Structure formats: C-alpha cells, structure tokens
Amino acid sequence: MLIEIRKKPFNAYAEMQYYLDSLDIAGKFGATANFVGSMRDFNEDKKVTHMTLEHYPGMTEKHLETIAKESIEKWKLLDVLILHRIGKVKVSEDIVLVATWSAHRKDAFESCRAIMEQLKSGAPFWKKEETNSGAKWVEKNTPGF
Amino acid sequence: MLIEIRKKPFNAYAEMQYYLDSLDIAGKFGATANFVGSMRDFNEDKKVTHMTLEHYPGMTEKHLETIAKESIEKWKLLDVLILHRIGKVKVSEDIVLVATWSAHRKDAFESCRAIMEQLKSGAPFWKKEETNSGAKWVEKNTPGF
Amino acid sequence: MQVSVKYFASLREVIGEANSVVDIEEGSSVSSLWQSIMDRKNIEFDNVMMAVNMEYVKSEYQLKSGDEVAFFPPVTGG
Amino acid sequence: MQVSVKYFASLREVIGEANSVVDIEEGSSVSSLWQSIMDRKNIEFDNVMMAVNMEYVKSEYQLKSGDEVAFFPPVTGG
After folding, report:
1. Separation CA A16–CA B118 (nearest Å)
2. Which pLDDT value is given to residue B113?
3. Does residue A145 lie in a domain region?
4. Residue A42: its pLDDT value, please?
5. Pairing mode, if any, of strands B94-102 and B87-90?
6. Which of A111, B30, C23, D44 lies at a C-alpha separation of 20 to 30 Å from A93?
7. What is the ipTM of this complex?
C-alpha cells in the first residue's frame, strides 16, 4: 500500500508501472482497476486556466490510509495505490490516481470506485480554480453515482 | 478508438501512455478508468503454468468494435482503448486492457466495467489452461457482479 | 445450397475439424444445421453459441447460400 | 482550557487566519466552540466540517485541553 501527496506533476502510467515493479505479487492478481482524475480546461461552462489544491497535512494522509486499509480488508485486495496532487495544478495534469489489485475483477472494480467516492466526499482537499472571471473556491464535487 | 488483438506480450501502462499521447484530448477529459486483466498462476485451486488464447479472426474485432462504439454513444466517451492477447500467454502477462476517457468519473467507471462485462460474456475468445494436471479448456468466466 | 461452417476451441477438438463446407436444404435454420452436424458426428454439446456472418444469431435464424456459420462453446476471454 | 484551532480553504479566507489558540470552558462541545468563533468574527458559514485531532467528529463532541480542532468547508479533492 502506498499513499502519497505530491507537490509536483506526476505521470499516472509511469507511476503505475513503477509501483507495480516494486511489488511482489506477479501471478497473484488477475485484476487491476485504475482511475485517473485529470484537470480539465473547463468547469461549469467556465474556462479554467489552472487551480490550486490545498490539503490538511497530517489528516489528509491519515484519512486516505484509513480508506485504503478498510478497502483492502473488505475486498481482500492485494494492494492499493493512491496519489494526489496539491499546489498549483495546470490544465491536463493528473490530480488523483487510485489503483487496486485483486484476484478477480469484481473486487478491483468495486474497490477502486468506492475509494474514489470516499476520497471525493471525505478526504480533506480543496480546489480553488482560476477562471477567466477570477479565482473561486470549488463549492462541491460532482456526484459519482 | 483503438481495438487491437495482440499476438505478443504488451505492457499495459506503456500502452496507456502511448495511446494517450496519440490523442488530442488533453484538458478535455477529467476521468480515465482503466482495467487490466492479467494471468494468475492459479485457477480453481490448480497451478497454471501457461495458457493459450484462441479467437475468431474477424468476428472478435467486429464484436469489440460494436461494444466500443455503443459505449462511446451511451456514456458520451471521449475515447476507448481495448487490447486483448491471443496465443500462448505466460503467468503474470497481461491478457486484456480496457480504458475509457470521459468528462466526469461516473461515465468512465461505468463504461469501463460494462465494456469488460460485455467482452467477458460475448467476445469470441477461448482459454485453454495448462495446469499441473494437464491441459483444459476453461468452461466459463467468473461472474463480474 | 452450401454454407461454410467454422468451429472453435473445445468444439473444434470435438468435431475434429476447424472448417467445412456443408450442403443443406434451402431455407434451413441455423439450429437444424447444428442438429444435423451433431447427428452426423454423433456428438452431444451443450450451450453451443451460434454466429452467422460474424454476428450472433438466434437458433431460428434462416440461412442463405454462402453464409459463414460458426459454432463455438461459451466464450472465456478477458 | 486551551485548544488549537485550524481553518482551511475558503473558511481560512473568511476567518482571516489559518491557526489560533482559543480559550474555552472545560467540557465545551466542538459546536459551541464553532458558534463562539462565528459570533466573535461576526460571520455565517454553512456546511462547516469539523475534525478533532485529525478525525471527523460530530457536533456534540466534547473537547479536551490541547485538542487540535479543525473547521473547513465541504471537501473538493479528486
């Protein structure tokens, strides 16, 4: 299990490969589900140029760790990876990466989506968007279901 | 949209990056859902050494294309990638990769899983496993729900 | 009339061939073709899947001359 | 007793500070602390989320001396 808050841009698929190479689970998993959230150049019909992501150092990591551990238990996962950007994020950069490894696909799919929903609803991160009509805190996330 | 049947091993995350780089959708998508099915070293309590994947040339490609096109329509996807191995597959190699790109996460998650389920239930592929008690055609897939 | 017939995976092994050209009566259904093949080969095979010209069809689908018919076991890809 | 209080995101901007140390009565609830802060700063803020020692708590949670209390708006990560 790895949970990291990143100040610098990351490449989601290079991170997937790098983390997978560090594990000793080859041949043990049949399913990997992976979600990448990336920054779009528009939101609610406004052009967004960049945004700033704030977090609560300490609590954010702790909260994500709890989500990951509970998911490993519930879905019998072989591993979980969560990466999340903070700081100034530019259009098309990756914001979040969640990946889960399991024996069968049902567990990988369900856990990956559940982790994302829990992260979206509870992990202490806040986005402030710079749009063509000024800076604005995002008030709430789009529903996931 | 890209659908390919591969005779040689592929690296799922290198393929993701390579395909994404070929697209012109940076800043347009907020969500990428990705599933990778890999070969395990055991199935139904038997040790599996390798397997052979057969397909129906022509129909398999056509069938996957229909699934992909219908998914793009239904979930308003920006793009879909499907790769599938055939031939001799060794333990830990990737068998299938499905990825979907959309504006919001709900559509990416749902479409990726739905494509996998449709592929599993309808795409003409067949697995023959070599286990420590001989070769055997897999009779049916594990349920996905 | 003639149709070409393909078999895949375990069914190919049971039948003992991958392709054949079969003479059938004008207007035969795909299921009557399948029954005649099972009779001739003296086999039983449950849960066969049927496709004509690379699309799944129902068992009552009526064949035309030159059709490519495929019979195969439940698929196990992914 | 004293507790340390943190504010994040839009609430930090509304309050005008990121951290403070606040004197409260022994046995105060987290919501009474929040009410006193809103009164003192003369602000209204809907949907505040509350955490004590880096875990979410309900509004009736009873504070202890030295607790780290955090108030923040609905989260918008991912």
Report:
1. 26
2. 98
3. no
4. 86
5. unpaired
6. A111
7. 0.95
Q: Which two tokens stand for residue B40?
A: 């395990």
Shortest Cα–Cα distance, B36 to chain C (Å) = 9
* Residue of chain B minimizing CA distance to A40: B27
Q: Is 80 exceeded by the pLDDT of residue A44?
A: no
- Judging contacts by C-beta atoms under 8 Å, the chain A residues touching residue B108 are 35
B96: nearest CB among C6, C74, C78: C78
SS3 C60: coil
Interchain proximity A109–B31, CB inside 8 Å: no
Amino acid at A105: R
Q: What share of chain C is helix, strand, coil (3-state, %, to 5)?
A: 25, 30, 45
As for how many domains chain D has, the answer is: 1
Beta bridge partners of B37: A31, B96
Residue A134 gets the label, from left (phi > 0), alpha (psi -120 to 50) or beta, of: left
The answer to whether residue C46 is domain-embedded is yes
Q: How far is B4 from chain A (nearest CA, A)?
A: 19
Q: Is the pTM of the predicted complex or chain greater than 0.90?
A: yes
Residues 6+ apart with CB under 8 A from A55: A5, A84, A86, A124, A125, A126, D77
For A37, the closest of D72, D75, D78 (CB atoms) is D78
Domain span holding position B131: 2-137
Cα four-point dihedral sign B23, B24, B25, B27: positive
The answer to whether residue B10 is domain-embedded is: yes
Is C66's Cβ below 8 Å from some Cβ in B? Answer: no
Residue of C nearest to B37 (CA): C78
Q: Are strands D2-7 and D68-72 parallel, antiparallel or unpaired?
A: parallel
| CATH code for the domain in which residue C9 is found | 3.10.20.30
